[in-house]
Amino acid sequence: SDQFCDAGVGYGEPACGISSSSSPSKILIKGGTVVNAHKQEVADVYVEDGIIVAVGDHVTVLDATGKFVMPGGIDPHTHLSFEFMNTETVDDFFTGQAAALAGGTTMHIDFVIPVDGSLTAGFEAYEKKAKKSCMDYGFHMAVTKWDEVVSKEMEIMVKEKGINSFKFFLAYKGALMINDELLLEGFKKCKSLGALAMVHAENGDAVYEGQKRMIELGITGPEGHALSRPALLEGEATSRAIRLAGFVNTPLYVVHVMSIDAVEEIARARKAGQRVIGEPVAAGLALDDSGIWDPDFVTAAKQEPALLSFYFVLYVMSPPIRVSGHDKALQAALSTGVLQLVGTDHCSFNSTQKSLGIDDFRKIPNGVNGIEERMHLVWDIMVESGQISVTDYVRVTSTECAKIFNIYPRKGAILPGSDADIIILNPNATVEITAKSHHARSDTNVYEGRRGKGKVEVTIAGGRIVWENDELKVVPGSGKYVELPPFSYLYDGIDKAEAKYLSSLQAPVKRFKSTA
Ligand code: URP
Ligand code: ZN
Ligand code: ZN
Ligand code: ZN
């Protein structure tokens, strides 16, 4: 059987089980529980030419009795074909998306990285990379320098190229990092364009200092990574970005929230009425560093120190995977609405690439896998444990992303007129995650050996059945670029909020004048 096929794990080989035979353009899904973020009901779903035509009664094609029929996942945060830290991610727009489809994700939003600061050149490069796409995708764009050209390019990206979000890196000093002056310019420009500002929130200057300290202490191995960039540096940058976004009165999206420190800042701002979105990633919800310090593992690693280092490098991402406790707090924040949607930050390297930094943690390419695992992990960790409902599952894995990036209800819903991106999840089946059976390209998997309940048995993307009976049927070039329009719901009424804010600034002045 191909259930745990071992093809596709080698660098340069196609992902396993992929064939390009076409699927029927008319599909009927019968008897399942159709779950939208607003309600769930037993109903049939009829799909024709890539669009959901009706939710109601029809002839049987796929039997979903006892299963959940839900909108395909949308991963708001991925890096495919990303040139980063002197190497390039193993997954490209075909292999990464094929893996995503096998895991029930039918759309992702990737980060265009400028070329020498040029947004235009960056966009053109990513347009080329994405030609081989087998599922729908959109783009965010990073801003890594500031001048009149960049400012104008941001406008072109929003008005002509379908980009409605810009990411600012407060970390990666000497590479992608920007300073507060640029951050303010970027925030102002985002506000004027109706685009969403996003931040990677870690204090990059302090991280640099932390790295120096580690090297001075002789800690050069992978364990130095997390020690050099503690949660307080994530809290500081999250707080700073939120306060500066509030100062400009523009909505803010904090990517890969990894710590209690950052959650507290987001909670405080949201409570005060500020429009701040917080995105945990699968790794933050599912992992902590206890596996690394497991007594049996440490004993084994003492016999063979290289084993410890090898294990450590695989988990290196930024912000780092934290000590136990942060994971539970992130889950709680997701279940209570302090955090709104789950991404992955899928940025996958093979073990050879990760080992580039085995003797100097500063050289380990940062990033972990997740695009294929996210839907299963969130189901098992959040729904199976009783922390969220099935409708909330749909919201945090799909609907909220579609709303934030302004493509709802074309995406993120099962409604007449919506794109036919649909999954069928069997809550009684189990899934085991292994590098041997996954469809992504890396030879390792940070969730290796993890078992969970809930299995995506069928994925329909753009009206084609692309994943069924543990087999992928994907066609390079079949994925469409989805333009993301500006002025999402996060902008609704923001000027009224601004007027209130400005008058609150003036209140003390008036009081001062009247007493003078
Ligand atoms: O370690 C990470 N997160 N790699 C991807 C780049 C980023 O910061 O999102
Ligand atoms: Zn396979
Ligand atoms: Zn980042
Ligand atoms: Zn990222």
UniProtKB/TrEMBL annotation:
<feature type="domain" description="Amidohydrolase-related">
    <location>
        <begin position="68"/>
        <end position="466"/>
    </location>
</feature>
<dbReference type="GO" id="GO:0046872">
    <property type="term" value="F:metal ion binding"/>
</dbReference>
<keyword id="KW-0378">Hydrolase</keyword>
<dbReference type="InterPro" id="IPR011059">
    <property type="entry name" value="Metal-dep_hydrolase_composite"/>
</dbReference>
<keyword id="KW-0479">Metal-binding</keyword>
<protein>
    <recommendedName>
        <fullName>dihydropyrimidinase</fullName>
        <ecNumber>3.5.2.2</ecNumber>
    </recommendedName>
</protein>
<feature type="modified residue" description="N6-carboxylysine">
    <location>
        <position position="167"/>
    </location>
</feature>
<dbReference type="InterPro" id="IPR006680">
    <property type="entry name" value="Amidohydro-rel"/>
</dbReference>
<keyword id="KW-0862">Zinc</keyword>
<dbReference type="InterPro" id="IPR032466">
    <property type="entry name" value="Metal_Hydrolase"/>
</dbReference>
<dbReference type="InterPro" id="IPR011778">
    <property type="entry name" value="Hydantoinase/dihydroPyrase"/>
</dbReference>
<dbReference type="GO" id="GO:0006208">
    <property type="term" value="P:pyrimidine nucleobase catabolic process"/>
</dbReference>
<comment type="subunit">
    <text>Homotetramer.</text>
</comment>
<dbReference type="GO" id="GO:0004157">
    <property type="term" value="F:dihydropyrimidinase activity"/>
</dbReference>
<comment type="similarity">
    <text>Belongs to the metallo-dependent hydrolases superfamily. Hydantoinase/dihydropyrimidinase family.</text>
</comment>
<dbReference type="InterPro" id="IPR050378">
    <property type="entry name" value="Metallo-dep_Hydrolases_sf"/>
</dbReference>
<dbReference type="GO" id="GO:0005829">
    <property type="term" value="C:cytosol"/>
</dbReference>
<keyword id="KW-0732">Signal</keyword>
<dbReference type="Pfam" id="PF01979">
    <property type="entry name" value="Amidohydro_1"/>
</dbReference>
